[in-house]
Specification:
A 7-stranded parallel sheet has the order 3-2-1-4-5-6-12, sandwiched between helices. The chain has 2 domains: 6-115 and 229-261, 3-Layer(aba) Sandwich (Rossmann fold), CATH 3.40.50; 121-226, Dihydrodipicolinate Reductase, domain 2, CATH 3.30.360. The chain is of the alpha/beta class. The chain is 35% helix and 25% strand. It is built from 8 helices and 12 strands. Helix 1 (16-26) crosses helix 7 (230-243), helix 2 runs parallel beside helix 3 and helix 4 (121-136) packs parallel to helix 5. The protein is elongated, with a radius of gyration of 20 Å.
Amino acid sequence: MNKQRIPLVLSGACGRMGTTLRNLVAQSDEFTLVAAVERADHPLQGKVLPENLLLQKTLPEGRYVIIDFSLPEATATLLAEACRLRNPLVIGTTGLQEPLKQKIGEISSTIPVLYASNMSFGVNCFFEIVKQAARLLNDYEVEIVETHHHHKKDAPSGTATELARIVCQVRGLKIESCGRYGRSGITGERKPEEIGVHALRLGDVVGEHTVFFGKTGEIIELSHRCYNRTAFAAGALAAARFLWGKPPGLYSMAEVIKEQTGEIR
């Protein structure tokens, strides 16, 4: 007997990530795309997409998992709609500010929500590797460099920010006081507790992150490089699979990986 497919609605369906997700869903026998949503002024608004779906402005009625790769302002509107419909929500939109993150936490008491700074399985494993390195190399200086395509609107990336947060958490520091986002002018000597975070914007780079651990005489580099968006899309689908049937709550990619592999504590 055929397994019932998980119904999906994509918010930001015509963006770079949305397009990658649509292509991946089209090849899947586990998911089915029931609606595609974009901002009201999108040039394809009201047109029929290759999946034979009409591009919509708002979420339709029905039961499905929402995957959101849009813009922060669109995500803000989406939260209320998802809550009204009581549908699970996967959020991969980047550049969210603290008030919006707090709102995500609030609505998770009503619906299951998974928000991640990066949906890639590999990146979330990379977070664990960096956490262990920060423990082992606890007296090493740390600098983080991220590179993305020139279309990216936020800096530093959510992934770089999460890497800095992880190092600070391990070392009992606060990123607000020890984070250094680029350097210019007469900055004085580097303080031991500083966590440098630097953003590069070049060409069509999908995403690269390197964490440097250094002290006198040596440097250790840990890097993750993403060569296409399929890694993010596959992670978002894994998150949607994980959320389907879950009770309300705020979930993480670490929990998705643990369910799949039994690893990551």
